[in-house]
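INFO worker-7 received task bundle
INFO bundle size: 2
INFO processing item 0
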Amino acid sequence: MEDYGRRIVVDLPFERALFETSHALRHEGLDIIWTLDVRDHVKWTLRQNLRQYVLLHACSAEVTAEALRHDLAAGTVLTTAIAIYELADGETAIVAAKPFAQLADDAAWRAKEPALARLADGEIARVARVLETLEHVAPHSHEWAA
């Protein structure tokens, strides 16, 4: 599997997994600022059917404000993408991209922007807690794509 983020599989139907993911994000202080129902989009634009698949983008208002105070160009890395999709066996996969993914592992950026690096670390921990919460709601299996 490619490195798209951390992937977990929960023993929940799609709608319940979507609800639990939204709840866990809010509990961690992450606001869902964008939702795309991929299945609906593809159906209407291409007239093709897909399995249930939703993309969410989430971020913290506090982190966003603080990051933009440091660098207005940081807006492109502030949201965390989360894909939720149904699997053939009735389970649901949840894949969360690493917050600040383009920069979080860049030592030069971390040295140049230590305040933003601290914000990135906080968001990475927050998203990890969301996934840990979801694993406890309906544990089944998980796969890591470091």
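INFO item 0 finished
INFO processing item 1
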Amino acid sequence: MHLVEDQNEPAAMKFRWKMLALGGEPASGGAGFSNPDNLLLDPNGHVWLVTDMASDKLNQPVPKRINSKGQPVSQSNLRGLFGNNGLWFLPTSGDHAGNAYLFAMGPIECELTGPFLSRDQQTLFLAVQHPGEMHGIRKGKKSEKRQFAIKTREGQEFIQTREVPIGSNFPSKQDNDPPKPVVVAIRRTNQQDITAV
């Protein structure tokens, strides 16, 4: 939501607002993300946001959208549909203003936080917190198949099967290594401004 204070005065008691983007499923008019947390406004005024869904909800199966009582499954229990937490880019101007674009996907059972741009706008820093928070070390490349009742934009339902790792070996990805929090630096290979659209 974008708030615009009367006469652009931060102490104003009145304001106008407009919605930039809504989270949630695209079938329900959402932009495809859930539980936005930290925000970064780049020098062009575009929004970068990281999501923070609780680790116990990440990748939890949603095999049906109707519960045993014939009622729709609560929105809280649909969070598994959104997979891992991620970093999203939302342009605030131009032809694609208000669209949400997945820029980075976090490893299993982690939270991405603290997006920060270098002064020259060529490097984006991002912290990966508590990977493997629920299941700890991924042992022997353990994973399991889970089902998700997905809806298309037209409202048609289908079942998607995903193979979900149990635990994490991030960042080494070596079998049986413990997961560790890190700060990553993301750069463009052509040395240009990472925020250029």
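INFO item 1 finished
INFO post-check item 1: The two ends are 21 Å apart (CA to CA).
INFO post-check item 1: Residues 25-187 form one domain.
INFO worker-7 idle
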